[in-house]
Design goal:
Distance between the termini: 98 Å
Number of strands: 8
Radius of gyration: 25 Å
Strand content: 25-35%
Strand order of the largest sheet: 3-2-5
Number of helices: 6
Shape: elongated
């Protein structure tokens, strides 16, 4: 009987030890919570936790891309331009930013996409179509700068914003093609 209890104790100890070991990859950092309360930010490597009491969340700190759904935006000269953009972002590597990315924003990737859509709508809506088409680099920078200001407390950095495509209405496109042909 004592041998069975000793064997069960050894098995339970081994299982407990196995569940207490967690590994954080080099591309991630972790947040350790004990009974639902923040304890500390955890660096990459092997981490020991107390099973069933501690919870380890992992956060990717590499640069990632968010593809923003194309949307129709009315420019200052009342043209509907179909705008397709991408944004590149990453969670900042400092411990405070890792903590903010969990506790200051619910789902930062979803919210960054929504923010990109509304920011693009506001910025492009204040410009004429010809300016939107000719000033893409300035437009990318302006949208990124506004977004950086809005998300400064999320622990996330906007690396850059890229306008992939700006498509005018078909009749405007046809007129623009006729003008270019006439100039050539």
């Amino acid at each position: 009987m004592q041998q069975i209890l000793a064997l069960l104790f050894v098995i339970a100890s081994v299982v407990y030890f196995i569940f207490s070991i967690k590994v954080i990859q080099q591309t991630h950092k972790g947040v350790l919570e004990r009974l639902g309360k923040f304890v500390r930010v955890v660096e990459p490597g092997v981490v020991f936790i107390i099973p069933f009491i501690d919870r380890l969340k992992r956060r990717n700190i590499t640069e990632r891309i968010a593809d923003v759904e194309p949307q129709d935006i009315i420019t200052k000269d009342n043209l509907n331009a179909r705008v397709d953009l991408q944004e590149y972002f990453k969670v900042k590597e400092d411990n405070e930013s890792i903590k903010y990315s969990y506790y200051n924003v619910d789902d930062f990737k979803v919210q960054i996409i929504a923010l990109a859509q509304t920011t693009a709508r506001n910025v492009i809506g204040d410009m004429k179509f010809i300016d939107v088409n000719n000033q893409r680099n300035e437009l990318n920078t302006k949208i990124a700068d506004i977004m950086k200001q809005e998300i400064k407390n999320w622990g996330v950095d906007i690396v850059r914003v890229e306008l992939k495509e700006i498509t005018p209405p078909e009749d405007v496109q046809a007129t623009m093609n006729k003008v270019i042909k006439a100039q050539n």
